[in-house]
Specification:
Shape: globular
Structural class: alpha+beta
Number of helices: 4
Number of strands: 11
CATH superfamily of the largest domain: Electron Transport, Fmn-binding Protein, Chain A
CATH topology of the largest domain: Pnp Oxidase, Chain A
CATH class of the largest domain: Mainly Beta
CATH architecture of the largest domain: Roll
Order of helices and strands: EHEEHEEEEHEEHEE
Mean pLDDT: 86
Radius of gyration: 21 Å
Low-confidence stretches: 20-32
Largest sheet: 8 strands, antiparallel
Number of domains: 2
Distance between the termini: 16 Å
C-alpha cells in the first residue's frame, strides 16, 4: 500500500494510531519520497516455513532468444537447505536446466490473506535417486497410497533412469505476507 504525499498527514495520523493499537503492524516511513509503506515482508523463519509447506512451485528458467520457460513443479525443501526439483533430462525444462546457471522459483498462497515466497540462486544437476527424491516427492504431493500408484504408473525406478535432480541454493529471497496488514485482507 502506498499513500501519496497530498494525504500524508491524515494518513500518517491514522496509521500511527492503528500501529499503536496493533503491534503486529510494521511501518516503514520514507520521508524523502513522501510515501508510507506497510511492511509485509516475512522473517527468515516465516519464509522458510512457508516454502517447506506442500505447495506447487513455479520455476523460471532462462532461455536464449525468448522469455524464460515458466512452469509448475513439485519440489522438496527443508528450512536452511537447498530446494530440490525432479524432472526428465530430455524434457524442455531438463534441457534448459542443464545450461542454466541460476533459476527462480515462486510459491504462493492463492487465497486471502495472500502470501508468496520467491527464491533465486545457482543450480546444480545430478542423477535423481528414486527412493530419496522420486518417492519422497510422490508421497509429499499425492500421499502414500496415491503416491505408490503413481510410482507404479511411471514404471518405478526404471521409469526415471535418465531423470535429473536439480538443486537450487536460495541466495535471494522476495516475500510478501498480507496477513501482517491491519486488519488482514480477507
Amino acid at each position: 500500500m502506498v499513500i501519496q504525499a497530498g494525504s500524508l498527514r491524515s494518513s500518517l495520523a491514522f496509521l500511527m494510531k492503528e500501529a499503536v493499537s496493533n503491534k503486529s503492524m510494521q511501518l516503514l516511513i520514507n520521508r524523502q519520497k513522501g510515501k508510507i509503506k506497510l511492511k509485509t515482508t516475512m522473517t527468515r523463519e516465516e519464509r522458510e516455513e512457508f516454502l517447506a509447506e506442500v505447495r506447487i512451485g513455479i520455476v523460471s528458467i532462462p532461455e536464449e532468444g525468448r522469455g524464460p520457460l515458466t512452469v509448475p513443479v513439485w519440489y522438496l525443501y527443508e528450512p536452511g537447505s537447498e530446494l530440490r526439483i525432479w524432472t526428465g533430462s530430455r524434457s524442455r525444462k531438463g534441457i534448459l536446466l542443464r545450461s542454466a546457471k541460476r533459476i527462480s522459483l515462486v510459491v504462493q498462497e492463492p487465497t486471502p490473506p495472500y502470501k508468496y515466497v520467491s527464491v533465486e540462486g545457482p543450480v546444480s544437476i545430478e542423477p535423481v535417486h528414486f527412493e530419496r527424491d522420486v518417492r519422497s516427492l510422490a508421497y509429499r504431493y499425492l500421499g502414500q497410497e496415491s503416491g505408490e500408484q503413481y510410482l507404479k504408473d511411471i514404471g518405478g525406478s526404471a521409469g526415471v533412469g535418465e531423470d535429473i535432480l536439480v538443486r537450487l541454493q536460495p541466495e535471494r529471497w522476495l516475500t510478501v505476507d498480507y496477513s501482517k496488514l491491519s486488519p488482514p485482507i480477507k
